Amino acid sequence: MFFAATHTTAVAQAPATPQNGTPTTPPAVPTPAQPTVPPQISRPSVGLNTVVLDPAHGGVDLGARGTEGIRESEVVLQFAAQIKQALEAQGFQVILTRQGNDDPSYDDRSARVNGQRGAIFITLHIASTGLTGTARTYVMTDFAPASDAPGLIPWDRAQAPFLGLSHKLGDLVQVELARKFRGSPLGAETAPVRQLRTTAAPAIAVEISSVSVESRAELDRMIPGVAEAIARGVAAFRPSYVVPGLPGTNPITPGAQL
Amino acid sequence: MNSRWQFWVSAVLFVLVMGAALYFPSLRRQVYKAKDITQKTAEEARRELLPPAPINSGDPKVKAKMFWGSRDQDGTLVPVTVELPLSSDPVLRAKQILNTLLAGPVDPEARTLPPDAALLAFYILPDGTGIADFSEGLATGIPSGIQSEQLAVDSITRTLQANVPQVQQLKILIHGQEVDTLAGHLDLTQTFQVSMKEAANPPPRGVEVITAPIQKAIEKVTGAAKK
Q1: What stretches of chain B adopt beta strand conformation (E)?
Q2: Cα–Cα dist B153/B104, whole Å
């Protein structure tokens, strides 16, 4: 059927249909076989230590294009560089999904975080629309985790077990962005963002408005504020996130009933 | 003898020159007209060829609620009530509703879908899944971004929810194919919830509901049906 595109490929396997480039093969990721006996208890846990930053688009995909030849794919690289510095100042290790003008597939970008322990994922975008000088954080829309692949998290629904943590991260980051940029929403919004769906970690999309500014300088002036807000939000999220010993397994939130 | 030939040759040349002088302006007009036709986008041409959702003037006029963008509140939708003769058949009704949504509001700034986009087909499966097949214009004409793509899909789902209760969820295809994203951000491999959308996204408080008929959109739809 043309609309039934459910892949049962686990995060451990290469995606069934990579967008472009070579499919990435992350390591095997077992999940608890017996849900009533959480094996995470016996495994060493690790806290949040890594942030995977994803400057969206790149290569032939320029993203949104605005006045003065502003290209989203170029501007997000500048934002990412400064956000990386701000996060490193908070003690996080930062991995960029791209540093030049290349265009990894959605699955390759997700694979950068799916194979990490104690990592979160932030994808950066510049919008075509919206009130200029504002920023919005998006979390994946709720969707049910697939139950047809016991022991493994299905690749195409990898975000499902992390939605609660993603909402928390999104709200903490958005509160900081709203403090810096007047007119921004006070909490994270939900949207079915493709990049977030295959990400097996707390994941958010941050979108800045917009490429329609009168001059590029207006966007450049936002960079330090966005970097500081994201770093503060991620630092505030750190105590909320404890992950089990193996990457790709279901998360543990402090205080949650196991 | 020579002078007679000269006379006839000159006469023929004169007639040819006069004929050309009269014909060339007309030829030039025809060339410009042909140029205009070829400049028409493929989407526009396809749209003209598509059989429009027939609107039967005998159908009772009902107040349809369309969700277009708000001018006052960034990134939000406002309901606009439009009087339309709508079919009782849910598939036909969905086509009529979506064509009106695509025709757009009077204010082009409130448009949520690109003007070049066209609805190619609409089906409803027994489980209540509506399948809307749009032309490539929907994907190529929409401003790139999470907010703008979300607004476009929300305007479709909320308009269907308000007018075609038989549609429970919606699958969007582009030219008959499932695609990864709408314009680089919004996931089109999943279905979108149509029912319960109203409860999840109530109209913003304090926003006035415009009930004036949108003559332009109605004429576009009903006019197309008459052709």
Answers
A1: 61-69, 77-85, 119-124, 129-134, 169-174, 192-193
A2: 14
* A-B contacts (CB, under 8 Å): 84
Q: What element of type H or E holds A93?
A: strand A93-96
Q: Which residues from A are below 8 Å from B187, CB to CB?
A: 192-194, 197
Whole-model pTM: value is 0.75
By the 8 A CB rule, do A169 and A138 touch? no
pLDDT in tens, A84-118: 999 999 999 999 999 999 999 999 999 999 988 88
Examine the pLDDT at B209 and tell me if it is beyond 90.
no
Per-residue pLDDT, A38: 38
Instruction: Sort out which chain A residues have CB atoms less than 8 A from B129's CB and list them.
Output: 3
Q: What is the CA radius of gyration of chain B?
A: 25
| CATH for the stretch A51-243 | 3.40.630.40
DSSP-assigned states of every residue in B76-123: -EEEEEEEEE--SSHHHHHHHHHHHHHH--SSGGG--S-TT--EEEEE
Cα three-residue angle B195-B201-B206, rounded to 5 degrees: 140
Interface check for B131 against chain A (CB to CB < 8 A): the answer is yes
The predicted structure's pLDDT at residue B109: 84
B36, pLDDT greater than 50: yes
Contact status of B127 with chain A (Cβ, < 8 Å): no
Q: Which of B189, B129, B118, B180 is nearest to B157 (CA)?
A: B129
Looking at chain A, which residue has its C-alpha nearest residue B192? A192
Res. B42 pLDDT band, cuts 50 70 90: low
Provide the shortest C-alpha distance from residue A39 to chain B (in Å).
Answer: 32
* pLDDT at position B101: 95
- Rounded to the nearest integer, the mean pLDDT of chain A is 80
Residue A39 token pair = 């094996």
Higher local confidence (pLDDT), B163 or A29: B163
Which residue in A134, A129, A156, A133 sits closest to A145, CA to CA? A156
Residues of A in contact with B156 (CB under 8 A): none
DSSP code string of A161-219? GGHHHHHHHHHHHHHHHHHHSTTS-SS-EE--BHHHHT--S-EEEEEEE-TTSSSHHHH
Chain B residue with minimum CA distance to A7: B189
For B104-116, how does the pLDDT look when each residue is reduced to its tens digit (9 = 90+)?
A: 887 888 899 999 8
Q: Which residues of chain A have pLDDT under 50?
A: 1-43, 255-258
* pLDDT at site B38: 55
C-alpha distances out from residue A72 to A56, A63, A84, A214, Å:
8, 5, 18, 15
Residue pair A176/A96 in contact by the 8 Å Cβ criterion: no
CA angle B194, B198, B201 (to 5 degrees): 105
Give the number of other CB atoms < 10 A from CB of residue A20. Answer: 14
